[in-house]
Amino acid sequence: MLIGYARLSAGDQQDGLRQTRMLREAGCDRVVTERASSGRWDRPELQHLLESLQPGDILMVPELGRLSRSLKEVLHLLDRIAQAGAGFRSLSEGIETTGPAGHMLMRMIGSFAAFERLMLLERTGAGLANARAAGRIGGRRRKLDATQRREIAEKILSGTHSGAEMARRHGISQPTVSRIVAEYRVFSQSGSSIAP
Known about the structure:
alpha/beta; 12% strand; 196 residues; 8 helices; elongated
């Protein structure tokens, strides 16, 4: 069975008619339309359509961007279609996954996606290594320096100020104040100063 999927942009009725006409002219027996952003994964009509695919069915879209604009998501969706024993066709781009050429195309797309992922990991690793070499550690910078943290802990432990008071004064949460005091106690008992 040839099944069409048309994703409509908000407020664009003409585009919806154009997509439906393209799919009908391509021979779709059934056309499913959905009004949703391509960035949303929780598109109920698309999910239901994917779950109902049977071996031999072909899912058609007017253009690849109607399925998704994310390469990662497109690959995931194409994998789900293939697992159902179904095929995929994008009319505007002429992409088709059935037959030997379609299988080769899917392997090429998968290879590019894997290459993209490896390059991302390599760039991330290099960036972290450069940051460590420059003396920076990952994560958000602390809002307070060691002197401020020591002052908070000492004032609370001496009883001159409350945790809520110190939290308001420094613009931090009360759980953060509690952590500062706990760290101070640990480092004081070990003979070190408070953690930087």
